[in-house]
Amino acid sequence: MIKITENYQIGILEMDYVSKIQELEQGFGLAMAQASDLNKLEQVRQQYLGRSGLITEFVKIIKELSSEDKKSWGGEFNRLKIASEQSYQLRLQELQIAQKRQVELERASFDVTAYQVGRQFGSLHPCSLISAKIEDVFISMGYQIADGPEIETEFYNFEALNVAKDHPARDMQDTFWLNLPGYLLRTQTSNVQIHTMQNQQPPIAILAPGRVYRSESTDASHDFAFMQVEGLLVGRDISMANLLATMQVCLQAIFGQQRLEIRVRPGFFPFVEPGVEIDMECPFCKQGCSVCKRTRWIEICGAGLVHPNVLRAVGADPDEFSGFAFGLGLTRVVMLNYGINDIRLLHTNRVAFLQQF
Ligand code: PHE
């Protein structure tokens, strides 16, 4: 007979130890198997192996046993202790691995694009939209898109374009001069003609949309900065007919019309000869409206055949090559296209205005 202990107050027969050990092992094994994550397993560990856990308490009985019983039972108690500790470690590793796999799985299927902070979409500026539309038309005809500096020298903005120092044409375009002598904000995208022809031999076919600057007082239809699209085609036998056909195709595409008549008037620009101003048929009316000021025509573009002096200035032989150039008022087209009646809206960055496009 063994001594009565606190936990096992009723005298426990030797056989009872065996069944108690079995019961504890089975209970512990089952509880661990059912613990589906590390937190639950920790609870089970405390319940059985913690300071006053079921197994811990049970094993303490050994101290109370007679030395004879200690001898015969010590091994069994010890086995229980070690075995439960080992099976706990195994289950712990199993769950740790499972948890790691779960995390990896979650990370692998984590879609960063699924996260959305509110829904606020920007939109393209109307000038960008129309510019892209025009670019598409010209790219489809084999043109390349070119770019040039907005801070420019007198040479590229005037001299190489056949506008001599004291030429009255310089007054046509009120220039913003920079403090840096000889530098200005380009008054026209025609500077890109020169940059391109200096770097490239004919045939040349480029389109250069961009911002230009003029020192003007502003009102609803004038601004100190606006956009132009420069076009330049240089090759052999390029004529006025090519220019007019190209402009017609371009304007029809912008305004989505099957056929849009254009009208050509003589115009003076020192870098073209002959020089013309191109008007387009009002795309909005048949008998005169406020947009065309009841004239049925809208002035849209300066153009002409590239002046021999310009070709010479960039080292091309005017007897061999000819070309046309045009400067389309992009801002003008944007305003016409969207019915915008104040040019200044285009760069005030008012969200309410910009959201409409
Ligand atoms: N650069 C001219 C302007 O700004 C337009 C133009 C371009 C005219 C090309 C002829 C040829 O007024």
Task: Please characterize this protein's 3D structure.
- With 357 residues, the protein is α+β, with helices and mostly antiparallel strands.
- The chain has two domains: 12-108; 126-354, 2-Layer Sandwich (BirA Bifunctional Protein, domain 2).
- It has helices at residues 14-34, 38-49, 54-60, 67-108, 126-140, 154-157, 169-172, 191-199, 240-255, 308-313, 330-338, 351-354, and strands at 144-145, 151-153, 183-185, 204-213, 225-235, 262-266, 272-281, 297-306, 322-329.
- A hairpin with a 5-residue loop joins strand 6 (262-266) and strand 7.
- It is rod-shaped and about 125 Å long.
- The model is unreliable at 1-12 (pLDDT under 50).
Short description:
The chain is an alpha+beta fold and 357 residues long. The protein has helices at 14-34, 38-49, 54-60, 67-108, 126-140, 154-157, 169-172, 191-199, 240-255, 308-313, 330-338, 351-354, and strands at 144-145, 151-153, 183-185, 204-213, 225-235, 262-266, 272-281, 297-306, 322-329. It has two domains: 12-108; 126-354, BirA Bifunctional Protein, domain 2.
